[in-house]
Amino acid sequence: MGPSTLTHLECSNCGRQADAEVLQTVCPACGKVLLARYDLAKAAQSLTKESLGRRVHGGMWRWRELLPVRDAKNVTTLGEGNTPLLPAPRLGAEVGLPDLWIKEEGLNPTASFKARGLAAAISRARELGARAIALPSAGNVASAAAAYAARAGLPCWVFMPDDTPATNKVEVLQYGAHLVLVRGLIDDCGRMVRSQAEKRGWFDVSTLKEPYRAEGKKTMGLELAEQFDWTLPDAILYPTGGGTGIVGMWKAFQELEQMGWIGAKRPKMISIQAAGCAPIVRAYDAGTRSAPRWEHAATVASGLRVPAAIGDYLILDALRQSGGTALAVTDEELLAATGQLARLEGVYAAPEGAATVAAFQYLTASGTLTPQDRIVLFNTGSGLKYQELAPAPDAPVIEPDDPALDALVDAAEPRARR
Length: 418
Ligand SMILES: *Cc1c(COP(=O)(O)O)cnc(C)c1O
Ligand SMILES: [Zn+2]
What we know:
By secondary structure, the protein is of the alpha/beta class. The chain is built from 14 helices and 13 strands. The strands form 3 sheets. The protein has a 6-stranded mixed beta sheet with strand order 4-5-13-10-11-12, sandwiched between helices. Helix 5 links the parallel strand 6 (133-136) and strand 7 (156-161). Helix 4 runs parallel beside helix 5 (140-152). The longest helix is centred in the middle third of the chain and has 15 residues, at 186-200. The model has no long low-confidence stretch (mean pLDDT 95). Bound molecules: pyridoxal-5'-phosphate (PLP) and zinc ion.
């Protein structure tokens, strides 16, 4: 495999360049998001559609030329990426969208797509000499950070709101990370991480506050192009919190176009948020390029409980430039959609992923999506992590060999005639 062709970092706001060979957080000049830049002509020498096709193993690291890690020994992997793109004909028929697909990210290590971002960020942080990593988290990112830090042999500090789901707390502790539970919100945790990180030399891997998590998430866009044989779908529905996935995929499409692998056509990028925390939807509707903080954020979909996103302008640009939109669904709707997706397609989605399914009724009614469109929804995580949200099991209980069994089964499934 060819080496990384990373050249420098560039501010997405003021355009200032920054050195990619030292640990960087946000733009030193304006405090906005730094993006990684590559020598794409050089990448194209070893990364071709043919060579990629021969790289059967390696998950997202098959795209190594377009990722930031220079030395293979720093690649910290648990097998992330290369997730299936599943046709969804039964759900598609029910919602009137016959060309519907699911990118199933729940199969990643630690059961969410956060694995991609943290694999990239922690690998590169390790390469650049980070001694410990730290981050605020209200959910899946904590699990991924703790797992990849363990794999890299780096200490990890996680600051979590006290009310984070129990599964994430258990995982963080099992992976041997330090866990601090804060009686507050995710931004309170973020402030605490920043002050400690400065004092102690921890490297802060908060969403878009370092350049490489987005690079890991970018591989979702690269894979999608490959899986559709170098065409892109008409629309992508993406449950949006901090927005690394949207920003990363949008960047992936630009890089692929610059390499001549795809054309200028872009999918409508559609952000789905929860009604109890929808800063991007509000800003999209207001026509602004920044999304003010959402007060009293509340939703069961913890990955969507992000009141303020540092990359708001990048998310909103991608939605608008692609002719996409942003839409919020209620917790009640997204929880009902979890069952619908599981029953019809065998995919037990995280509530964030299911939120995209809940949005179909609105997007078809408004004409944003039509039956001719090829549509991909992202299931960003596994529903198995959210047991406390699942309905209580409701199944018959009987004694062994109880003769009532026949009647019980008949009631659910009448006997076929012989
Ligand atoms: C973090 C998370 C999201 C939001 O992802 P962003 O790319 O930060 O917007 C969505 N779904 C799940 C399951 C998550 O863990
Ligand atoms: Zn800047």
